[in-house]
Amino acid sequence: MPSPLAYNLYIYDRSGTCLHYQEWHRPKSVRQGAGSAADDQKQMFGLFWTLSNFCATLNPKGASKLQLGQPRKIGQGCGFSSFTASTYKMHFLETPSGLKFVLNTSCEVGSCRKLLQALYDELYVEVAVKHPSYAPGELLGDAFGAAVNRFLSSQGLLGA
């Protein structure tokens, strides 16, 4: 069985701006897919936005049903956390402040809910937000990227 691998990570703010993108083992280049990094980031945002809204619309426990595509409040509806395609698994976490973390991995990786929460709590908050030069909405720097590398490596997701 192949070893579990992280392919790439996207972090978006509440408006959909990509604050951080990092890749390790992307099976197909951006040029073969979306065409540009900006288009790739927009398509990824559109994919999880659509899936999370679709899941919220189908939520059987919701007291009031949302119409498909209707804007929803942060955390409203059921909690979409991942889906698996034939070649990758997409893990998703939305924080109470509206940040969205998307981690694409190989299919054999289990749930990354706790890992994404730790990435937010231990790295985003500790390394980015508490840094003296941090400004909300700005792209995250190299120190954050290095911290992500160390964190995912410690979890065995960056391979040998």
TrEMBL record:
GO terms classed as biological process: endoplasmic reticulum to Golgi vesicle-mediated transport
Compartments, record wording: Endoplasmic reticulum; Golgi apparatus, cis-Golgi network
InterPro entries (alphabetical): Longin-like_dom_sf, TRAPPC
Domain of life of the native organism: Eukaryota
Cellular component annotations (GO), alphabetically ordered: endoplasmic reticulum; Golgi apparatus; TRAPP complex
Annotated keywords: Endoplasmic reticulum, ER-Golgi transport, Golgi apparatus, Transport
Family the UniProt entry places it in: Belongs to the TRAPP small subunits family. BET5 subfamily.
Subunit structure: Part of the multisubunit transport protein particle (TRAPP) complex.
Protein name as it appears in the record: Trafficking protein particle complex subunit
